[in-house]
Amino acid sequence: MEAQRPASVLYVRVVPPPPEREWVHAWKPEVPGISEVFHARFVQHAYPKHTHDDWTVFIVDDGAIRYDLDRHERGVGSARITLLPPHVVHDGRAASEAGFRKRVLYVGTEVLGTHLIGRAADAPDIDDRSLLSLMHRLHASLRHPDDALEAETLMGLVTEQLHRHLGETTPDHRGSSDAAVAGTLRDLLDAHLSEPYRLSEAAATIGASTSTLSRAFTRSFGIAPHRYVVARRIEFARKRLLSGEPVATVAATVGFHDQAHFTRHFGRHVGTTPARYANSGDPA
Q1: How far apart are CA 205 and CA 176, in angstroms?
Q2: In which element (H, E) is residue 118 found?
Q3: How many other CB atoms sit within 10 Å of the CB of residue 168?
Q4: CA 126 to chain centre
Q5: Residue 255 lies inside a defined structural domain of this protein
Q6: What is the pLDDT of residues 95-139, one digit of tens each?
Q7: Does residue 16 belong to any structural domain of this protein?
Q8: pLDDT at residue 282 above 90?
Q9: Strands, sheet with 90-94, edge to edge from the N-terminal-most edge strand
Q10: For residue 50, what pLDDT is reported?
């Protein structure tokens, strides 16, 4: 007699563990103009009416938000940037029972002036894929102090686009060619390789916006300023490692905040860890 076959399994449903319903991560980055980074997921929490001294720039990664701004009811989901001006009353709550997840930057009025408040209150939501992509990259670079120069570069580009969406161009007093600006910036970066030098400091010295510096440098040398700095630090690190200095000492000496971040960047450039590189010599 033929053995009975088991019933065919059409599918297996894997139920993931329920996520933490609500959480908040907030920190002060080492980037001028940003007073706070705020990442959160909310389901039941609802913001009461309130105001901020800073501009609120946020993106919704999941779900949707309903909010009132200056007594006008509004809503926003993913794939947009929302710009809430300072000193204007607003609130906020989830648009559905599933809640929402968002990432926020609180930006000072020295970056976006108070004269732009009215324009932002009239049209707070921005539909711009290019700007959204910049915002994603900016948030990723704000996670670690060693990426502060990259974050500052991206923040300059974000600020420039926000100004454009609000109907004005950022002032730029550049009086020299790209080559001259880029050369001066390279000299400044080389002089401060082992310390947390800010692009805003170079901008004040040269007399140009951070976005102008970044573009001029990239056009002239084919590499962004923050990538140039990392590459130069790795170059100096290689020499120190081969001379026998400990990895942790080298990381700090060439300008990295911690050894783990140094190791990650070193691996990208050299293809191995600093420790393995230091001990890779052929004894024969």
Answers
A1: 13
A2: helix 117-122
A3: 12
A4: 18
A5: yes
A6: 999 999 999 999 999 999 999 999 999 999 999 999 999 999 999
A7: no
A8: no
A9: 47-50, 90-94, 65-69, 72-76
A10: 94
- One-letter amino acid of 36: E
41 and 120 share a domain?
yes
Q: Would you say residue 5 has pLDDT above 70?
A: no
Task: Report d(CA 269, CA 262) in Å as an integer.
Answer: 11
Same domain, 243 and 121: no
State how far the Cα of 281 lies from the Cα of 260, in Å rounded to an integer.
Answer: 23
Counted residue by residue, the chain has a size of 284
Say how far apart CA 258 and CA 129 lie, in whole Å. Answer: 34
Say if residue 65 is in the same domain as residue 192. Answer: no
Tokens 């940037």 map to which residue?
81
Q: Which residue has the tokens 């609180």?
A: 106
Q: Name the token pair of 168.
A: 């004005």
CATH at residue 109? 2.60.120.10
**Cα 26–27–31 angle (5° rounding)?**
135
Domain range for 194 is 178-222
Paired with 76 in beta bridges are: 65
Helix 178-191 crosses helix 225-242 at what angle (to 10 degrees)?
A: 40
pLDDT for 75 equals 87
Q: How many CB atoms are closer than 10 A to CB 247?
A: 19
pLDDT 10s digits, 49-73: 999 999 999 999 999 999 999 888 8
Q: What is the mean pLDDT of residues 22-35?
A: 94
Q: Which amino acid is at 84?
A: L
